[in-house]
Amino acid sequence: MNALGQLAAVVGISLAAAGGTYWIKGPPGRALICDLATLKPGEVCLEQISPDAKVLWVDARLRKDWVKIGLPGSVLWNLDPGEDMQTFEAEVAMRILETPRVIVYCGDENCGLSQQIADKIRGLQLGAEVSVLRGGWRALSEAGRIKDSNPKS
Amino acid sequence: MRIGIFIWLALAVCTQAGGLEFTETLKEVNAGADATLVTTEFSFTNKGDKPASITKSDSGCSCLKAEISGGKLTYAPGESGVVRTTFAMGNFSGTVDKMVALWIDGDPADSPSTRLTVRVHIPVLVGVEPKTVKWDIGAKADPQIIRIQMAEGKPIRVTGVTSSSESFACELKTVEEGKQYDLVVTPRTIDAPGMSVIRIETDCAISRHRIQQAFAVMRKPSPSQLPVKP
User: Residue of A11, A94, A117, B87 with fewest CB within 10 Å of its CB?
Assistant: First the structure.
């Protein structure tokens, strides 16, 4: 067998193995996995928060996204220039008095905005326990916590 | 057999080559107090041996726009370009990191291969500290001070203070006109939980710094502060 024949054989065996795995086991899992060991300070995994826990959820996404499909009971706080920061501050401050456990989420686990909003909420010095949700909105959606979403295994 | 392995390895290497290389992926900018937009440029070169295309960019925030060399998305080997980011400062304050994700040829949809970070330092013209003053129900209603400190430079005066609740009295004292003020907050009652939003208006020429807020809170004592029964 010449070199090209050997290469073709290797490629063929690899493809057959991959196809077989796909056929038997299905497509690769793309569900978000939150690894406790890799959490940054101030971050939490959704699995750590009981669905019944009394939490003030703060949505750091754009207003249109929050209005369209936000977590029920959440409040909005983003840093868009068109928004009124004083209103956000006052709203969250009022709610923290009743619910001093605050978790901030944004649309993408890499958006970084959650951390800035969390810092602003901590800066209110109201004694709230403020965390950022690893995985953001996607984690909530995959867990079926967003309206009309279904849990992903 | 050796030739086959060589071809296999060569193909594997080719899939890793042909990327865009950025001179910097983090840029720090000191924004002016009155700036509304901050523009930053990230230069890149295609160091690979085949054309490379930027297929998608996402800043994750409507406050940050990314423009790639006037819309040119495909770069021949050796060709250079620029990603120009424009950050609308809006209501941001302090140090802000904003990121642009770039997807280049074949990047998985959920994993861009390049992330560019713009770190903007925004001056605080009107500082309020502490942001919140607190009392426990039943404790002494001692006055507490919120210090209002203006940044160096042109004087900024406090023009008015309003409290959303009658339960707290606010008195403004000038420490140094245009530079520093003390806001003395005293609860009028100490028998019920409550909160006041204190609005501090200044004559700051830059509108986003003009109004600041502080909070006064009357709260239930935490269990650890309650007297222990003998």
Answer: A11
